[in-house]
Amino acid sequence: MAKLDELINKLCPDGVEYRRIKDIFTRLRGTPITAGKMKEIANTNGKIRIYAGGKTVIDANESDIPNANIVKVPSVLVQSRGIIDFVYYDKPFTFKNEMWAYTHENKTFVKFLYYVLKNKVEYFRNSSIGMGAMPQISLSVTEDFKIPVPPIEVQSEIVRILDNFTELTAELTAELTARKKQYEYYRTTILNNNIGNMKTLGEVCDFVRGPFGGSLKKEIFKKNGYAVYEQQHAIYRNFDFRYFVDNSKYLSMKRFAVKAGDLIMSCSGTMGKIAIIPEGAPEGIINQALLKLTPKKEFVLSQYIKYCFEDSITKAMNTNARGGAIKNVASVDVLKSIKINIPPLKEQERIVDILDRFDKLCNDISEGLPAEIEARKKQYEYYRDKLLTFKEKTT
Questions:
Q1: E strands along the chain, which residues?
Q2: Could you list the residue range(s) of the whole structural domain that residue 235 is in?
Q3: pLDDT tens, 8-19?
Q4: pTM: predicted TM-score of the whole model, two decimal places
Q5: pLDDT at position 354, please?
Q6: Alpha-carbon distance 77 to 310, whole Å?
Q7: Residue 89 and residue 43 share a domain
Q8: pLDDT tens, 25-53?
Q9: Are residues 138 and 35 in the same domain?
Q10: DSSP structural state of residue 256
Q11: Rg (Cα) of the chain, in Å, rounded?
Q12: The total number of structural domains that make up the chain
């Protein structure tokens, strides 16, 4: 930072010029290619990366790409449809022709542009509002966008600083990924040891599928009362609520009520995500997208069941799912028939204690590597904004 301050004071103490992107950078066009063709030519050993809308990315061989327009210089890709974002890439690539990219003969200019655009990504996402169900930005939004153009020495130092932040975060993320794999291996090993008996989920849990039909129409929801548990509560394990029902409705649907220690499982779309209802959670009922499991305390602990789901049951459920784009649980009876190893309760307590510590290390955003990564990301975003904010030079 001291070196950067020195450069700014020396080279641009009165501010910098702001110029439109189209006046500085060369715009690149992509390749006309369909989603079906991308699936057909995808090859993990391919040398050309192809970007499509959202997070769709494949590798392919250049000879397999029809009408290929390959970019072979460092560039910034504008993901203009679906998930609005920006990607810096410096190896051969192409992209669906609904998107575009920018390059420049000076590599530092290109990387500097990437950091400027990433810093303003919310501006571009907001610019997509009102352009249909699928978010999309028009070409002019980036073409006419003005960016600061400090001297190349200043750009180079900013890129160096932000690259260091990015590399540190990447290293921490790689370490976390390795630890998660280690944790998953250990979890599978400890849950499938020989201390215990094989029992079906139906033997150790009571099941209640959420209400079907028109039992929970939005017209009956209240601003407060008894909470309605939704799929998001199983997926994200947060307990903020959008909907409530009154006392009479709650009493009429008491079989769908949850209590502390019950597990709720998502059973439509994103399947098999599971959460334990914690002590102190609001009284309420599950909706149609959830399944309630109540462990039989003489056999099994709630936390033990949760780890069994995370280890293997969720995968089995998705394998046996039915439906098209939106998957559904094939049958509650199929789920009940899944067998798991059930050790004595004391052994379950020991296993849960060990896995809780592993889980916290790998997933708790307030501790360990996840907390450090989050802190580094916030620090990076703070400095990125600070480093890329320049006074505009007046003529």
A1: 17-20, 26-29, 48-51, 57-60, 75-79, 85-89, 93-95, 100-103, 146-149, 197-200, 205-209, 226-229, 244-245, 257-258, 263-268, 270-276, 284-286, 290-295, 339-342
A2: 197-342
A3: 989 998 999 999
A4: 0.67
A5: 94
A6: 36
A7: yes
A8: 999 999 999 989 999 999 999 999 999 97
A9: yes
A10: G
A11: 27
A12: 3
